[in-house]
Amino acid sequence: MDKFTRLNHPPDTGLLPGNRPVVAPIYQSVKFEFDSVDETVRNWRGDSPGYNYQRSSNPNARQLELTLAQLQGREDCLVTASGVGVLSSTLLSLAKQGDHVLCFVELYAPTRNLIRRLLGKFGVTHTLLSVIDLAGIERALAGKPTRLVMFESPTNPMLRIADIAAITRLARAQGALTVLDNTLAGPHQHGQYDVDLYLHSLTKFAAGHGDVMGGAVIGSAELIAKLRPDFNALGNALDPHAAFLVQRGLKTYLVRYREQSANALRVAGFLARHPAVEAVHYPGLPSHPGHSLARAQMSEFGAVLSFDLRGGAEAAARVAEGLELFAMAASLGATDSLVLPSQLLGARDLDETQRRLAGIGAGTVRLSIGLESIDDLLADLAQALQRA
């Protein structure tokens, strides 16, 4: 062969039968081929297994999908390039003109925007309530045919706890699908409930190191099969290397989640006793309104908490700026601790009444607890609170 040809057709170093890598390799290839036209056609039609094009699937993404489905206790999964990507792809696939979506002020702000603005442009209506208003949820579902109930638990950033059993029961009785953003609880929790679809930002706890983005929707094989053509058409594919990194992160996921949750409980207890703090929002505290419900629903309470400072927005900014070990940055769930003051908590799409309903105050601060020494984190919080 000419050297130009040889460089584009390198030697095959495939493994022998019975010889396997302990860690799956990164399949950094857009294209996959079969030996015959018939095999290729059958695969493209979905009549035979295998891979043909990275946007449709690839071995790294598929391994991650199957791992996540097993962890959540469901049959199948689709992964995307970001958490917001899986939100948008799922909502666009499930909702159509004339449908009604029941959603909540406590939802992640991009989720609210997708439902209220993007779906609204296509003739999808919505009702916005508080996720803890079960009477309102029951009235809304009984009063209008509803396609989707989109909710979170725990909510971000105020850590409210949804009654998952009640919400799914009410939705099922009225023929509505339930979609739970399960990011803060993580894919090892809430699988015992009759939720139709679980959404996760893999950027957070699953990947866990703040260096890769991804999203996942998990559910029954039947529902995931219905989503698959739309996901493929929307083109929000997860890159093989990103899928590899998330899969690697999952190896330490449970160890990290449990340690970070234990640290968060220590931080919440410290803040609850501090004179500068008016209230702490963490479901692991017995004083939290949703504590009993969280204990029944969750094995761990999570690594995210928020608290309200008596000094308001100015004090919140001073605390965020004064912390040395907490990075003032978006996201959560990584090994490094993060802080966001009220000015950065993103409820700008809500009016004043809705903001009060959501519970975010002028002095609210959100923390995501990492894997630093708990004593160092507490000392850092003490000095920042003293400064504020």
Summarize the structure in words.
- There is one protein chain.
- The protein is α/β, with parallel strands linked by helices.
- The chain folds into 2 domains: 193 residues, Type I PLP-dependent aspartate aminotransferase-like (Major domain) (Aspartate Aminotransferase, domain 2, 3-Layer(aba) Sandwich); 135 residues, Aspartate Aminotransferase, domain 1.
- Helix content is 40%, strand content 14%.
- It contains 14 helices and 11 strands.
- It has a 7-stranded mixed β-sheet with strand order 1-7-6-5-4-2-3, with helices on both faces. A 4-stranded antiparallel β-sheet has the order 8-9-11-10, covered by helices on one side.
- Helix 5 links the parallel strand 2 and strand 3.
- Helix 12 crosses helix 14.
- The model has no long low-confidence stretch (mean pLDDT 96).
Short summary:
The protein is of the alpha/beta class and about 400 residues long.
Strand order of the largest sheet: 1-7-6-5-4-2-3
Using the alpha-carbon principal axes, give the shape. globular
Q: Which CATH architecture of the largest domain would you pick?
A: 3-Layer(aba) Sandwich
**Tally of separate helices:** 14
Mean pLDDT across the residues is 96
Gap between N and C termini: 72 Å
**Radius of gyration from the CA trace?**
23 Å
The named CATH superfamily of the largest domain: Type I PLP-dependent aspartate aminotransferase-like (Major domain)
What string, H for helix and E for strand, traces the elements in order? HHHEHEHEHEHEEEHHHEHEHEHEH
What name does CATH use for the topology of the largest domain? Aspartate Aminotransferase, domain 2
Give the tally of structural domains.
Answer: 2
Structural class: alpha/beta
Largest sheet: 7 strands, mixed
What is the C-level CATH assignment of the largest domain? Alpha Beta
Query: How many beta-strand segments?
Result: 11
